[in-house]
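Quick review question:
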């Protein structure tokens, strides 16, 4: 008999944003995106100059805020309120992609997707690096190096900010839009008086 004891878990959480966001893609297109550089010419993926775009997308910000609050209460069991630190829109052309990266100086990351297309996916890398490679019969969270996720329309995914991720090559013939943001807990956090910190709201709801 085998008994599994779940030690340390990393998961991807997906929320559904209400369907009254039908014109959100047009709103995304109205923002100004960075001009191509040599690096972006290769990747064909561009972010907005504005890194606080949710301040101009009030309805979407409210939905995202309450999803983050639910995540902090129900998943992390934190009493702190969420503070959205930064938010930006990404525009990825057909065949475009991003390099792999993490989001430093934040607790967790979220990405909202107004579109669904089988050719549009995001890759998240396993933070626990494998130290042994055998003949794998079936991939599972215990032996895989990454997970490719195809977002649903109007879906919001949330994951720890230390998880390396990337936009996979856009295999569709459409321009891919997504909105990413980072979050920290408001108020006091820390395990003792020596490392106690206090984060004051400056951009939240």
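Suggested answer, residue by residue:
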């Amino acid at each position: 008999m085998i008994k599994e004891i779940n030690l340390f878990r990393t998961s991807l959480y997906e929320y559904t944003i209400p369907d009254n966001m039908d014109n959100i893609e047009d709103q995304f297109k109205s923002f100004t995106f960075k001009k191509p550089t040599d690096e972006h010419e290769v990747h064909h993926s561009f972010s907005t100059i504005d890194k606080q775009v949710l301040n101009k997308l009030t309805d979407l910000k409210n939905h995202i805020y309450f999803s983050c609050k639910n995540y902090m209460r129900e998943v992390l069991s934190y009493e702190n309120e969420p503070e959205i630190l930064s938010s930006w829109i990404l525009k990825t052309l057909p065949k475009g992609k991003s390099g792999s990266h993490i989001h430093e100086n934040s607790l967790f990351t979220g990405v909202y997707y107004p579109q669904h297309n089988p050719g549009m996916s995001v890759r998240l890398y396993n933070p626990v690096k494998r130290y042994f490679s055998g003949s794998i019969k079936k991939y599972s969270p215990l032996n895989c190096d990454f997970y490719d996720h195809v977002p649903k329309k109007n879906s919001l995914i949330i994951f720890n900010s230390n998880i390396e991720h990337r936009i996979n090559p856009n295999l569709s013939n459409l321009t891919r839009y997504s909105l990413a943001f980072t979050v920290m807990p408001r108020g006091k956090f820390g395990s003792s008086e020596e490392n106690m910190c206090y984060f004051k709201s400056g951009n939240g709801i």
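Why it works: The radius of gyration is 18 Å. The CA atoms of residues 47 and 165 lie 16 Å apart.
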